Model the fold of this input.
Amino acid sequence: GQNIDQPTEMTATEGAIVQINCTYQTSGFNGLFWYQQHAGEAPTFLSYNVLDGLEEKGRFSSFLSRSKGYSYLLLKELQMKDSASYLCAVRNDRGSTLGRLYFGRGTQLTVWP
Amino acid sequence: DVKVTQSSRYLVKRTGEKVFLECVQDMDHENMFWYRQDPGLGLRLIYFSYDVKMKEKGDIPEGYSVSREKKERFSLILESASTNQTSMYLCASSLWLAGGAQETQYFGPGTRLLVL
Done:
């Protein structure tokens, strides 16, 4: 089966940096996605990693270590609008589960002024 | 921009009713998915489809069925709604890339269903 683990809640203050971790155990790994979901809205794509290393996109960066089954999302210069749930999802490309995404339960980030 | 639309944002139904949730995407994506999202449980996959008339069970298919008669449309059917199907339902679509990898999934706005 697939096991994806991330913290349930995190808090931080405006202007700070926060790191949201995600660990996974899966067979047929073929990439890891991060999504942002504001309350009452649909998830929106933030980042994608398939090779080890850091991918930077503005204030957001995502890191992957396949050997450790570990990823993190780094948010810099936090803003109030970054308060949201952050979902880690692993893509599986093996057999009958080809193309599926397996989601963690999400990390609710609250940014305080 | 990819657009995934769902027929209703909010829906109230009675126990035992047959419920249809419609999802339409306008980007010619092969893959379409139905999830439900509940507090503390995250996103759970109900059914998915890789092509017209194809369907695959996800993790929680019991009590649901799906229909994909056209590429752009994927319908979720609750045969006989029950109170434990009260949830947020999210549809998503994605594209196959060259080499067999799947692009990111794009989500619709969701349908919040209340079954009384």
